[in-house]
Every structure is written in structure tokens, then in C-alpha cells.
Sequence to fold (260 residues):
Amino acid sequence: MGKGVPSAPLHSSQYQLLRSGVGCVRQRPMRFTIQSALIAACLSTSLSWAGDERAPNIVYVMSDELAYYELGHMGNPYIKTPRIDAMAAEGIRFTAAYAGSPVCAPLRCNLMTGKHAGHASVRANDGGTPLRAGEITIASILKTKGYATGGFGKWGCGGRDSTGVPEEHGFDDFFGYYDQVHAHSFYPPYLVRNSEEVTLKGNVGGRSGETYSHYEIIKAGLEFIRINKNKPFFCYLPITPPHGMYDIPADDPAWKLYTD
Fold:
């Protein structure tokens, strides 16, 4: 936690992606059962889209270990989240639902597959249990209906060389962290794109380096949206903050929210 505030803010590039896309499923902390229902509604709408109307774009933003009260619109007097607050004001807030699991990897499996925890393939949070081969996900369904599918951030449903890699579960492009332990550092030596390492300049791991990982992740997400702006797209954005080693760069514009 830097600069004397309770939690690291979303930085400016994350704000950009939060406001991108025609349709947006708005993320709420620890409320993913309802969110999955919303995605199901989007899928139902898009799969039955008629005439010349274009199916809706979906931008799904998921934060990591964001507490219920760590948002401005929920009444927190210290943490400032103006873009998320605006989305909440313009949309719908669901405040009486629960996550499919209280821990990282099983929850992500619930989200991707729509399965109850008792039927999910990932039930432990050891960081090594993958989705099963051929397991259907939101992305794989949308891909069969003509959607471009991209994910940018923390996957956590299977590491490289496993049956759970995102490119085998409906994603045209996934860039970020495959392994959840890898995601604990915001300055890793590399990120992964479709199972291939992408070196991050000046990083050796740990709590400091030259390249802040989420600048690259958000940049890739925005580029995905630009490239696919003329066709339906599903952009999954499972960002890591505020989980991890709260090491937001000191010169990030978001810190200006706390100068007073």
C-alpha cells in the first residue's frame, strides 16, 4: 500500500479500458455469481441477435481481492474510484449475491465455465489445477458465434503446457499471467502471450523494475478493442490490482487523486 492510502488505485490506463466497448458487464467485488448470470443474459441476447443489428460487445472487468467497501460509490471515504463510481451510477449494482468460491483459481473457473463449485474442474487454490481439455467457456461459446475473444490480465485456470491454457478454451488472444503465483509481482521478467514468453524490459522480478506489467496489459487490451472495433468482441480483463505487491509506479497519474 503506497503513499499512505489504504489500497493502490487503478491507474489511468485501466480507467481507459473500463470505459471502452459498446456493452459492458460491470464487475463488483465478490459478486461473481450474479455477474455470471449477467454474462449468460448477454450470451442469450447475442446468440439470438436478429436482422442487421450487431451483437453487443462485452467488456468484462474483474479485479483481484477488491473488498466490498473499497469503492467510492460504496461509501469509502479514502479510496477514490471515480470511473468505477460513474459506471455504477449509469448501470446496475448487485449487492446481495455471492461468489462461487472464496479463493482465486476456483472462482475463475466458476466464472469461465458457469459451473457450480461442486461440479467445477478447479477446486483447489494451489495454482496448478487446470481446466479440463475441451471444457466449454464463455469465450469458446462466443467464438463460435463470430466474436473476437481476448483476455488480458491474470488467467489462473491452467499454466503453460497444461490442458487449461486460454488459447485452448476459446481465446484468440490472451496476454498476461497464466500462473497465479507469477501474478504476485507487478514487475516480472516476462508476461505470457498465447503460451509464449514476452520479455519485459528492465525487470528481474520482485517489487521494482523498469516495466510495470499492467501498463503493458492494458495497452494490449485497448489495442484488441481498436483492432476489433468493427466486429463483435469479448474483452476479458482480469486485472491483478489491488492484489499482489501494491507497487504502482510513483509517477502514475492516478496518485494525483490523493494529493490533497
Q: What stands out?
A: The longest strand covers residues 233-242. Residues 17 and 189 are 24 Å apart (CA to CA). Residues 1-35 have pLDDT under 50 and may be disordered. Residues 32-47 form the longest helix (16 residues).
